[in-house]
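Structure tokens please, single chain.
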Amino acid sequence: MRADFEKSDLILKNAFMDGRNYLHEHEVYDLLTALNIGVPPKCSIVRFTEEIDDIIDTLDSFGFDKFVCKIVNPLIIHKSDVGGVEIVGKEDVPDTIRRIFETVPIGQAEITGESVDEIEKSTYGVLVSEFIDSPRGFGHELFIGTRDTREFGPVISAGLGGIETELYSNEMRRGRAVISISPGVSDELEFFDAFTETISYENLTVRARGHARLIEDAVLKQAFAHFHAFVWRYSRLNPDAPFHLTECEVNPFLIDSGALRPVDGLLRFREVMPRESDPPVGKIAKLLKPENICVVGVSGKSMNLGRIILNKLLNGKFTPDKLAILKSGCDEIDGVKCYSSAADLPVKFDLAVVSVSADQVLAIVRDFIDNGKTESMILIASALGEKEGSENLELELKDIIRESRSRPDRGPIIVGGNSVGIISVPGGYDTTFQPSHKLPMNPDNPIGGKVAFVSQSGAFILTRISKLGGMVPRYAISTGNEADLSVTDFVEHLMDDPEVKVFACYIEGMKRLHGLYLAETCRRVLNNSNGERTFIVYKAGRLSEGRSAASGHTAAIAGDWDVADEILTRSGAIVARSFEEFTDLIMLASCLSDRKVTGNRIAALTNAGYEAVGIADNIRGDRHSLELANLTDETKSKLAEILMKYNIDNLVNVRNPLDLTPMAVDRTHIEIAKIFNSDPNVDIIIQSCVPFTSMMKTLAPGGLEGDGIEHPDSFTQLLIKAHREEIGKPLIMVIDAGEQYDPMAKTLLDAGIPVFRSADVAIRTIGMYVRAKIKFGSPRFIS
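Here you go.
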């Protein structure tokens, strides 16, 4: 049977016409009946002003002897906490209703700040409903609900029901007690598939030992599909929605004779909200690849931020005739002509870079908009909207931007405020303001050229660049406070650049619905990438302290981290939980972008027993699951021959992970890696080296080892050659040693081989990467 949305529309409309933005519990049951979700209990409501004894005639018609009496009032959510729920026999119902009316401390329950004592008693009553006698116990109650979130719109959740829901969702790892999905990203099949990963599903079906199946998958699938369709119909994502849901919860559903039986429910809704106007994102092309640039805030006397930016532009592809400076009382600076105001500029500029104090920003932005002299602007303004007292400036900036959208050209797009600038290799410019000697850049670094780094924190971009050896990202975009353009706007534009293989996003707080848009964009990126692209996100605000710090830093509201983590992960993103994890993922994804991940089976070799143990100990975790490859007989035979060839067969057993001991010479490691590469059961090769052994050349040139790592027969050079010519599978290197071996690590990384400095970190990071590639390599996308 289909859901009857005409009836559900009418139920909501009647409540709205009654002046309510919520449904009473019995109306929720009517709604579920219309949606064909479960079998609601028979029930009747008794108002305070009605004749209570008349209820007996109604109950006789139900044919039951046991009933539940519940207080009905919009201000009381947890009815049992105030003594508003009693289970009684039919004959005791009238007296129970009177007792509830007389004794329930309604005035203590406040949600809106308005006590029940101040509300007409005719607006509430007691609901008398059929008592459903079904199996009780851990996992036998089901919760299904939805809430409207700022960043992701409607989020649907399901899992353990009853009073256990909140407790176990906090104590268990994510996705075991309760799962959450976005109907804008995941379809009804994914909703059910996600639910099958929960303890709730295991207890309701035969998967849990000692439990009889309580309900068939077909019943659950229908309920999930209809609830998914219901949430979509009344969501902000549906342009034809008659109302917008803000919250709906059925907790719990009981299982009775194989059917879902709701025994409590709430629903809140509101009138349809208009969507915010989107910026003219088509102009991002000119922002990232401008033909000319105007700089504001250049000092003629000192090397201030504006002057640093100007010099970087001149040292890039921009000649003085393609640049202009907005500065009164000056003819030119560093060969670039100055103009007193935007009105004096001879042409319309593709980009204006504004580096001035916060109190000067608004006048400059207005000047450019009023005279139509730029397509885009980067606001490098200190403390705009962050420092106490500057909040009004940011609100005024947003008003100016909003007003500009009514112009024929829709005004310029704006990056910031509080951006540290943009690096655009295709655009030939760098407007970040740190001096070059403070952050040396290495354009030959193999990591950067495939990376699009989009971050609300510019400092985070710069520190990652430094930690990754001065890599030059193809794009590094600091969006700042996002008065106009957001991280999502840039990612959506950059997905059309085929050279970008790694999307790295640092996010503190997101605009309304932009979390959802980011998840949608992530899916589109990965759907069309044939496994070559990776989407990495660090979302601030995992703990309450983090949420507070994020809000203070960007003047943006950080959202629900768990929801963001789950929805982005289900969309194919890898959500990092630490800065170092984020950095390692960028390095790994960039180096492996041209190597196909075909599975999660690893083969590892090392020359230290503890590393073999560490690798085996870390192959599984709450966010990854690797397997030790079952080597073929042919591989084992070849390995035995190699061990014999180098006279270490009496020291080493053929196994996976393979511990070569410190007695193995450089070439032994390489030949074994090649054998692993030829094994059809191996998907990924882990090559680990504790470099202290005298049997290997692992030091920088000039010491006791002569050429050391530069010698053609050194481990480093042999591995690089094999990696380029013979080893086609993903290869990961681990060098667990101090700074003396940094040259070895750098040489391998410069050759495009990902290098970790600890085996356990390597395995966990690889596991997350492989999980995303395998499980979400070709996800379904809901447009």
